Backbone:
């Protein structure tokens, strides 16, 4: 790990990525048994497992950096909601199938570009995770894009629901590109991508595609943020209580 950035900042950066992917993976898990077709059930389960695998890689790295014999499980199951630093979009309740697809498409489009750029990081562990994850995200992006197109150009009802999903989720995307003190340090030290460049790449890809699907992002005057600072919506607490309950009730349990 060759970089002039503080070890704690690298830990926080890895933790932020691990938290976002972990929380989204949990949302995918909630949909097991609810997909509209068996084929989609398998596809979403695979996407959820891949996302959980990415979360585990980031949290294992974060635990290693934190030291004190910490593990990925410690970070996942023994922190409170104010200690989680995931993007708000990832924690939002699933809603209907249109919202599930739209959220996954917007986040995956961002992370796909993010991992491509992260392969230039001077932290070798980041590069390794980015390379492996990029292969998975290519598949996820193709699958989710197909659904956005199918529903956006489908029936009047499917188009209405996709429009509602886009309107609901769009105000949360700005948080992907916020440059706080940690992001600024990461960019200057060469461990993370330039978020301003990434935002333009994302918009150049997402906006034309949505337009081809006859979907138009809303004109937002305000955007939601705070997740990376530990300031979350009320739903994260409910999600964590369900995700952490077995470990907290049986802290020494093995199976």
Residues:
């Amino acid at each position: 790990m060759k970089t002039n950035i503080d070890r704690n900042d690298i830990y926080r950066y890895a933790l932020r990525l691990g938290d976002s992917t972990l929380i989204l993976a949990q949302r995918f898990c909630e949909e097991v048994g609810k997909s509209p077709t068996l084929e989609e059930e398998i596809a979403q389960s695979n996407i959820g497992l891949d996302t959980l695998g990415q979360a585990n890689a980031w949290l294992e790295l974060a635990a290693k950096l934190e030291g004190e014999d910490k593990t990925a499980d410690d970070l996942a199951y023994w922190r409170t909601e104010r200690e989680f630093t995931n993007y708000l979009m990832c924690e939002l309740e699933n809603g209907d199938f249109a919202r599930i697809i739209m959220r996954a498409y917007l986040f995956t489009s961002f992370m796909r570009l993010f991992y491509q750029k992260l392969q230039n990081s001077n932290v070798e562990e980041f590069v390794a995770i980015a390379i492996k994850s990029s292969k998975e995200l290519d598949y996820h992006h193709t699958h989710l894009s197909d659904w956005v197109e199918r529903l956006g150009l489908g029936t009047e009802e499917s188009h209405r629901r996709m429009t509602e999903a886009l309107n609901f989720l769009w105000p949360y995307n700005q948080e992907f590109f916020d440059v706080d003190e940690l992001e600024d340090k990461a960019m200057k030290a060469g461990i993370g991508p330039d978020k301003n460049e990434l935002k333009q790449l994302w918009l150049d890809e997402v906006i034309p595609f949505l337009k081809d699907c006859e979907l138009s992002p809303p004109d937002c005057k305000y955007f939601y943020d705070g997740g990376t600072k530990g300031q979350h919506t009320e739903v994260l607490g409910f999600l964590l209580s369900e995700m952490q309950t077995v470990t907290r009730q049986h802290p020494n349990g093995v199976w």
User: Anything to note?
Assistant: The mean pLDDT is 94. The two ends are 35 Å apart (CA to CA).
